[in-house]
Amino acid sequence: MADSKQTVAFIGTGIMGAPIAGHILDAGYDVVVYNRTKSKADGLVARGARWVDSPAGAARDADVVFTMVGFPTDVEELYLAGDGLLTVAKKGAYLIDLTTSSPELARDISEAAETMDKHAFDCPVTGGEAGAISGTLTLIVGATEADIAPVRAILETFSSKIFCFGGAGKGQAAKLANQVSLAASMVGMADALSFAQQSDLDLALTREMILGGTGASGAMEQLAPKSLDGDWKPGFMVKHFLKDIGLALQVAEEKEIALPGADTAFTLYDMLEAIGGGDLGTQAITLLYQEEAEAVAAGLDWSLYTHAHEEGDECGCGHDHEHGGRECGCGHDHGHDHGDHECTCGHDHDHEDHECCGGHGHDHDHECGCGHHHEG
User: Fold this and answer.
1) CA dihedral of residues 336, 342, 343, 344 (deg, nearest 10)
2) CA 3 to CA 331: how far, in whole Å?
3) How far apart are CA 222 and CA 47, in angstroms?
4) Residue positions annotated with a catalytic role
5) Distance of alpha carbon 208 from its chain centroid, rounded?
6) Buried b (16+ CB within 10 A) or exposed e, 92-117
7) What is the pTM of this model?
């Protein structure tokens, strides 16, 4: 039951944010919304949400503030800038970040909030666009059950499960663990479909068989059908997934642990973004295994891959991919240097053939591991 005294601000009404805010609105809460592109909030406003023209304006009088933006740099600016949310939010307000971001940044925000008599915790979500629309997301919280008690009713309006990991930043770390698992599953799905295709198997039947055994995964269940249908629309964008994997690799590097599955996925998704796939759904990884005509039809351009790795470029995340190597969305260089493209898994991606972690050689004709030539 909605508390009529609580006002909720929602900042970031994109693919995931809009349906989440819609569930809060439907539960009877007074909702104020802001998004950089106003049109993405129009549907919520039509349903009764109030529009304001700045994050500060949205948060100033709110009891609970939700944020769901793209990258850690966005979160940092939103919360910690001079006129950021920590400054403008009223005392006692709850600031809940749904973005998948940096564990360290989440801790910094939480600690700063407490010194200002405000409460902030990280609460990344999993379940994708479908979960956001159906209101069945899994929430991964960097706080205790007691910490979230005053806002639990609001959280339950758009979730089916809530996991509390007990401390600031731990929600982000747990979400990154989920993304590490998903990364390997996405590569496994793409590998399996390619193997089946090259073996002249019925792909739908092969998928059904895999789902009946130990090879089953969320990727095979939810995303393989989109790939088989040639549906590349994003429920979760490649550029955002690449950011998540990069964040996980950053933490792994700091802890001196190896994540070869995540590293392979990073290499492949980095390649997909480099050829123009950053705004496609993550299922588009399967395009790397297809004939060039399939990639072109989806708006990809293999010639961009050579340019990106030889000249350096700026990706859709707003980070600079230096001439010395492609820097991921987390802001760290994972060893893909200009000379030999060596990744942190220890595999050598030499300059001549751009061989990726999985052994898929991309020579100057951009030949991928499926054996098809993507002419430059």
Assistant:
1) -120
2) 41
3) 30
4) 175
5) 27
6) ebbbbbbbbbbbbbbbbbbebbeeee
7) 0.82
Which tokens hold the place of 45? 């406003």
CA 155 to chain centre: 20
Write the DSSP assignment of 102-121 as a string of letters: -HHHHHHHHHHHHHTT-EEE
Residue 164 and residue 161: Cα distance in Å, rounded? 10
Which run of H or E residues covers position 9?
strand 7-11
pLDDT tens for 307-345 read 656 655 443 333 333 333 344 444 444 433 333 333 333
Structure confidence by residue, pLDDT tens digits, 81-130: 989 999 999 999 999 999 999 999 999 999 999 999 999 999 999 999 99
Q: What is the model's pLDDT at position 367?
A: 45
Whose CA is closest to 126, among 175, 163, 81, 76? 175
Which residue in 38, 37, 8 sits closest to 20, CA to CA?
8
In contact, 82 and 106? CB cutoff 8 Å: no
Degrees (nearest 5) of the Cα angle 146, 57, 145?
Answer: 5
Average pLDDT on 233-248 reads 96
Among candidates 313, 135, 298, 275, which has minimal Cα distance to 227? 298
